[in-house]
Amino acid sequence: MVVVAFAVGVLAGYKADHHRAAPTSEMNPALVLVAKRHIPKGTPGLLVLSHSMYAPTTVPQQLAEADAIPDPRYLKGRAAVVEMFPGQQFTETNFTASG
């Protein structure tokens, strides 16, 4: 009986420690690109890239926009379709294929 109680206590402690060591997906950081300065509508993505108008930033998963852009290569061949302001996350709806 004592052995069973000890085993249950150890298992409960393990589950509590394991849960603390494995954060939920909301707590995991997400990489997003954010505007460093104002980006006018129509700005080509290559210009955004070449002039470093963005900053890669990590935010908690729950604060990342649903279609946030994590990879700067996505901007190649695209242009801004909205005005973007400092600190605004780049999303797939902010850019469209140029041409």
Concise summary:
The protein is built from 2 helices and 4 strands, in the order H-E-H-E-E-E. It has 99 residues and is α+β, with helices and mostly antiparallel strands.
Write the layout of secondary structure elements.
Elements: H1 2-21, E1 29-35, H2 45-50, E2 54-60, E3 78-80, E4 95-97
Antiparallel strand pairs: 1-2, 3-4
Search tags:
two-stranded antiparallel ribbon, single chain, Type Iii Antifreeze Protein Isoform Hplc 12, globular, disordered N terminus, alpha+beta, two-stranded antiparallel sheet, 99 residues
Structure description:
With 99 residues, the protein is of the alpha+beta class. The chain has two helices and four strands. The longest helix is centred in the N-terminal third of the chain and has 20 residues. Helix content is 26%, strand content 20%. The protein has a single domain, classed as Alpha-Beta Complex (Type Iii Antifreeze Protein Isoform Hplc 12).
